[in-house]
Amino acid sequence: MSGEFNAGLEAHLKGGLTTVCHAWAITRKDGVVFAFTDHDLPLRFAGFEFRADAGLSALALAQSTGLSVDNTEALGALSDVSLREDEIEQGRFDGAQIQAWLVNWADTSQHWLNFRGHLGELTRAGGGFRAELRGLTEALNRPLGRVYQKPCSAVLGDRTCRFKLTQEGYAQALPVQTVTDARRFVWEDFLSYDTDWFTRGRLEMLDGPATGLWGGIKSDRIIGTARVIELWQPIRGSVQSGMQIRLVAGCDKRVETCRLKFNNFANFQGFPDLPGEDWVVSVPSSSNVNSGGSRR
């Protein structure tokens, strides 16, 4: 979306001979900020310091007034001093906020915010990357609303669930003992929780190159004296023995789990008494329960 056009910049553009360039700022979800310009010297304005090291350059900036996705792309170079390939691979730039300006490099008070949105799909090749830029109207294309279903629709610990994961017994920090392919974790004599306690929960990295990354837990089993936890997908970063992780209890969204495991039934966001699809064939019966389902 476009910002208010700067009067000074407008006058400068109408003068014929211009000294303008582009500038971009990327703000990741973890708060890390990257700012670049295609000018040959660094610039400072809008609270950012823009580096002049070819971190990003625009291919096209086509915006529309409807709800269609803006045809907007950018090219960038991968390097240790700008955007690193391993951080893109780890997903640290997924959904990052991006702002783009047209600025008079001779007088940086003359600048215009001509795009604001977030990073979409990123592809990497030949030491560089291509990023899809999605405008603010992209969010309006997503279906929203409440789904009426028996399972709970909340995420454990969110503002609708309201369960405090800081309560004792629902999260455990400990070092990695044995790890295979950043996906299968094994601990000896870690039996203080029931089997499946962490199934559908989270494994969060607390230190090392993968700090801040997490994976969904597919299974939590006890085999002999060992606890084996397997993730749905590998952690997208280096994971080694001795690194600190945090295990968060899992929730299968059932009303029984909410009431018995978390004692949080008052905040259950499902509809456990919602009739099933075959309720229309239910008829009274004096001999047994006739719910419309199979009698076997």
From TrEMBL:
Pfam families the UniProt entry points to: Phage_BR0599 (PF09356), Phage_phiJL001_Gp84_N (PF09931)
Top-level taxon of origin: Bacteria
Secretion signal span: none
Q: Locate the Bacteriophage phiJL001 Gp84 C-terminal domain: which residues?
A: 196-278
InterPro entries to which the protein is assigned, alphabetical: Phage_phiJL001_Gp84, Phage_phiJL001_Gp84_C
Protein known as: Putative phage protein (TIGR02218 family)
